[in-house]
Write a structure and sequence with these properties.
576 residues, four-stranded antiparallel beta sheet, 16 strands, 15% strand
């Protein structure tokens, strides 16, 4: 219903023809079924333009990173003692029944619902198979076979496979087995604080909340104190598809993961074969040359492990003030004495999966950071496109020319965004300017678009109410989570939809809004009140956060206290 009313069409690909390019970049449209299948295989097999390969000990980049990949002394390897233990029958039964419903099946056609309804005898034999897999650190060859279902990217695909992304359909029993290991590994990582890099993904209870609040604390400090800041958002291409299993092994060894687990992961992502759905039927099986499956449960966590050496290296450099942005505050706890206290943190980056943002307070530090990331990317076959990078900067050349960053191996020329321009980070638009008008304009356009679509639809009051409360309000709330809208701004945003609602119900325009907001009648949610609730909940979470996000928030509160010359924390007493 919602998709129909808001005209959200389900975009699919009819892979009955494709456009291919020859060596001279001449395009040819292929319609022959055999040729389409062969060209599709050729594309998906080589799209990463890489293969699993060993790193030579004399490799120049490896010599730079060898020490960073050494096993960490702070980790006690005994924490992993039970990670490869066979699951109990009750644990296996619980895992099966936690699998989601209505998911696509792998090559066998066995669904999650089938596994959840098999008899006790079949359940027992399947459990024995799982136990043997963990004992042998391997999986059946049939579980290494998968289907690929291409879906379109946000732009139209225009018969070009480069405008598609693959969805991997894996065997359900395999995913259940890997889910057990993933949950065990997540628990160990969380309990022992294993991953040190500022990657706010891959583990339970992590979301875009933390990296967005961290960036918000930095931007507010910059705006309040007119400090210099550079946030370099790097575009990464095909992150999972280019993971080199041999470098992943080194990254897992760095965290002292046991050899049987490393062997199991290596067997899971090697000797794999995929077949692709096309309009002419499935293609022949082809060997997957590199990468980890995007549809695998453990892949996000493995990416965090793979990327952690770089993030930890940058944090170590930030502690030496070689990179990063320093957020600090110094104060005198007793005004009658000269003693001072200082609380500070140096933030070199913010990452969420492969969405990375390098943060510095000067261009030399930014060059230093980019030299490190370039070296790591070269070693690990990580592909970035500097032409698509975005730079948020508070200081730019007076003549309006691009900033030139002279790296060891290349030169990057990039035009920083103007203070009135914004960039999208994790779904939220950020800017170095002090005004929140860019967000307000986006929210206004969002509401107008919805109202324009619904104005010509035949809808009931209940349908309109549901779309408003369950679709529009959450959208607005997410977009404005880092700004505070005044009550008049919120009222102006809601006014078009209230007018539409009254029009659809043939109510006079003068009908009091209180009728719509009344809990006993329509119970329209008020954006301003929802905003206050969300801000209060967010602040509570930040105050109880012991990570760098919580520390930066505490420094921001101390600065607010000093700015207004308050004798106590503004959380305790706000006299204004």
């Amino acid at each position: 219903m919602i998709s129909s009313l808001l005209e959200k069409k389900k975009r699919v690909i009819n892979l009955d023809r494709i456009i291919v390019q020859d060596l001279n970049n001449n395009e040819t449209l292929i319609t022959d079924s055999t040729a389409v299948k062969q060209a599709t295989i050729q594309h998906f097999q080589n799209v990463a333009n890489s293969q699993h390969h060993e790193i030579d000990d004399t490799n120049e980049e490896w010599l730079k990173w060898k020490d960073q990949y050494a096993p960490l002394d702070i980790i006690d390897s005994s924490i992993y003692d039970k990670i490869m233990d066979p699951p109990s029958l009750s644990e296996w039964y619980s895992t099966l029944h936690s699998l989601p419903h209505h998911k696509a099946t792998g090559t066998s056609g066995i669904s999650n619902e089938m596994l959840q309804h098999i008899g006790p005898r079949s359940l027992h034999y399947l459990w024995l198979l799982i136990c043997f897999c963990l004992k042998l650190n391997d999986i059946p060859q049939q579980w290494r076979e998968a289907y690929v279902y291409p879906i379109p990217k946000p732009k139209e695909w225009k018969y070009n496979l480069a405008n598609t992304r693959p969805i991997i359909l894996l065997e359900t029993a395999r995913k259940a087995l890997v889910k057990i290991l993933t949950q065990r590994l997540m628990t160990i990582f969380v309990d022992n604080h294993i991953l040190k890099g500022l990657n706010f993904a891959g583990l339970p209870h992590q979301s875009t909340f933390e990296p967005l609040r961290l960036l918000d604390n930095i931007l507010n400090d910059v705006k309040e104190n007119n400090k210099e800041l550079y946030i370099f958002s790097q575009d990464m291409s095909k992150a999972y598809d280019r993971v080199n299993i041999h470098m992943l092994q080194k990254a897992m060894n760095r965290l002292k993961l046991p050899l049987p687990f490393i062997q199991f992961i290596s067997n899971l992502f090697t000797n794999r074969y995929n077949r692709i759905f096309t309009a002419h039927g499935t293609t022949d099986a082809y060997k997957v040359l590199v990468g980890i499956d995007q549809g695998e449960v453990i892949s996000p966590l493995l990416w965090c492990i793979y990327y952690d050496p770089l993030l930890s290296k940058l944090q170590s450099c930030a502690e030496q003030n070689l990179t990063g942005y320093e957020l600090s505050h110094t104060w005198r706890p007793d005004v009658t004495k000269s003693n001072t206290n200082t609380e500070s943190c140096n933030i070199p980056l913010s990452a969420f999966m492969d969405d990375s943002h390098w943060i510095t307070d000067s261009t030399p530090k930014l060059v230093f950071t980019l030299n490190i990331t370039t070296s790591f990317n070269k070693l690990n076959d990580v592909q970035t496109n500097n032409d698509k990078a975005v730079l948020l900067a508070t200081k730019s050349p007076e003549n309006g020319e691009p900033i030139k960053l002279e790296l060891d191996t290349t030169t990057i020329e990039i035009q920083p965004l103007k203070p009135k321009e914004s960039t999208r980070i994790l779904g939220v638009w950020l800017t170095t300017g002090k005004s929140n008008q860019h967000v307000y304009r986006q929210l206004k356009a969002e509401v107008k678009q919805c109202c324009d679509l619904l104005s010509s639809k035949i809808v009931t009051d209940k349908q309109l109410l549901y779309i408003y409360n369950a679709v529009i309000i959450p959208r607005l709330e997410f977009r404005c989570q880092l700004v505070f809208l005044t009550e008049s701004q919120c009222d102006a945003l809601q006014a078009p939809f209230r007018t539409l609602f009254k029009h659809k119900l043939h109510m006079p325009k003068t009908t009091p809004n209180a009728i719509l907001m009344n809990n006993l009648i329509y119970k329209f949610q008020d954006l301003y009140q929802r905003q206050i609730q969300e801000k209060f909940t967010s602040l509570t979470c930040l105050l109880h956060d012991s990570s760098i996000v919580g520390v930066s928030t505490h420094i921001r509160i101390l600065k607010l206290q000093a700015k207004w010359h308050l004798p106590q924390s503004p959380l305790t007493d706000w006299p204004i």
